[in-house]
Specification:
single chain, alpha+beta, Alpha-Beta Plaits, two-stranded antiparallel ribbon, globular
């Protein structure tokens, strides 16, 4: 099953992912910072920072890849 990962610490809250894949991403403000949230994901703290990930259906794969390609800081990664 395909998987998507979001490296939150790199996110600049630019809305590109939400525009490309609103069913997967939502921009939120937390503690004064604007960041994307990978909806329905599980999060973990790594040495770099917060990492969100989840398995996605094949129907969401195209939108996930689009979000990955439009992200200006390359913090979204899709694995088939």
């Amino acid at each position: 099953m395909p998987e998507i990962k979001h490296e939150v610490w790199k996110c600049i809250g630019c809305y590109a992912c939400e525009s490309a894949a609103p069913s997967l991403f939502k921009i939120k403000e937390k503690d004064g910072e604007v960041k994307a949230e990978l909806l329905g994901s599980k999060a973990e703290n790594t040495k770099e920072g917060r990492l969100e990930k989840k398995s996605i259906d094949k129907k969401d794969l195209e939108k996930a890849k689009e979000a990955e390609s439009v992200c200006p800081v390359s913090c979204i990664h899709v694995k088939e």
